[in-house]
């Protein structure tokens, strides 16, 4: 048995939760995928997956095997890259998880990366809440704000810029807030990120004010908040990536510009700093440069 291939197959099955989907991704037949996983289980003398006619789930042993299998694959890839010629190119798939606004920003730019690296594939995942990097087989994830998990490698690559905005039709006939205390009484649309959808933080560079908000609408997707704001639903805090073009076009109005939303660190997290494959470092370097190219994220 080729244990490296079997481990790759196991990781893909665990990620997709499907033998058929894993077979498509790995360019194998479904029976071949099933045979590799069964051979791995026989080699380890333990069951890694619960199988039923319509469901697939990891056993406790399978959950424990995931990070170990990932480390083995990373080590093998690093060894392979170390033995390549000096002009080695990045190849393979990188799973990159991003908040929706930054995901849109990157999707406009990734074509140049892929053109420069024909053997590279990027699986772009727009996700508002933190992932389980190992269980979800995420290579790189961008998180906004402090990173609480000390087991992850963390690299700060920039800062968010957001605006408090509203549509002209919402503001018509209403007093436009000039300071945080003026927000009381307004309809608010809140973005619920990692469970927090009821507080806004503002800073004028010297003082920071955190407000508890009583929102009329809460959404766990920033693009839904964006659309509701354009429709005249109320005040919202939106990333400059989403709000900028609408402010320039007059579809949204920047409110309280002298007391903007507090900036948050933009962090990239990944499972380990050891044996990072060339495909991952290539995407990481591109991501860092793309963020630096935007002055509002510097």
Automatic annotation (TrEMBL):
GO terms for molecular function: DNA binding; DNA-binding transcription factor activity. PROSITE patterns: HTH_LYSR. InterPro entries: LysR-type_TF_proteobact-type, LysR_HTH_N, LysR_subst-bd, WH-like_DNA-bd_sf, WH_DNA-bd_sf. Coiled coil: none annotated. Keywords: DNA-binding, Transcription, Transcription regulation. Residues 1-59 form the HTH lysR-type domain. CDD domains: PBP2_CrgA_like (cd08422). Gene3D superfamilies: 3.40.190.290, Winged helix-like DNA-binding domain superfamily/Winged helix DNA-binding domain. Belongs to the LysR transcriptional regulatory family. This is LysR family transcriptional regulator. It comes from Mesorhizobium kowhaii.
């Amino acid at each position: 048995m080729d244990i490296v291939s079997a481990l790759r197959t196991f990781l893909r099955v665990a990620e997709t939760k499907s033998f058929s989907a894993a077979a498509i991704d790995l360019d194998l037949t479904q029976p071949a995928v099933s045979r590799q996983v069964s051979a791995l289980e026989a080699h380890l003398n333990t069951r890694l997956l619960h199988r039923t006619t319509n469901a697939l789930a990891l056993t406790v042993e399978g959950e424990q095997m995931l990070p170990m299998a990932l480390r083995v694959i990373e080590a093998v890839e690093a060894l392979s890259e170390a033995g390549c010629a000096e002009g080695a190119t990045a190849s393979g798939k990188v799973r990159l998880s991003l908040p929706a606004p930054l995901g849109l920003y990157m999707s406009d730019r990734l074509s140049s990366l892929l053109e420069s690296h024909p053997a590279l594939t990027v699986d772009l995942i727009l996700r508002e809440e933190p992932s389980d990097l190992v269980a979800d087989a995420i290579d790189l994830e961008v998180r906004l704000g402090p990173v609480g998990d000390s087991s992850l490698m963390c690299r700060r690559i920039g800062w968010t810029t957001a605006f408090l905005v509203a549509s002209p039709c919402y503001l018509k006939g209403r007093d436009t807030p000039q300071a945080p205390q003026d927000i009381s009484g307004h309809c608010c649309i809140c973005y619920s990120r990692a469970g927090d959808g009821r507080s806004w933080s503002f800073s004028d560079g010297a003082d920071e004010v955190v407000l508890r908000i009583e929102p009329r609408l809460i959404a766990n997707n920033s693009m839904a908040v964006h659309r509701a704001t354009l429709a005249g639903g109320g005040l919202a805090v939106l990333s400059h990536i989403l709000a900028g073009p609408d402010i320039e076009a007059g579809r949204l109005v920047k409110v309280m510009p002298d007391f903007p939303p507090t900036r948050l660190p933009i962090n990239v997290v990944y499972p380990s700093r050891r044996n990072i494959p060339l495909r991952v470092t290539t995407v990481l370097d591109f991501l860092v440069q793309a963020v630096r190219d935007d002055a509002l994220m510097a």
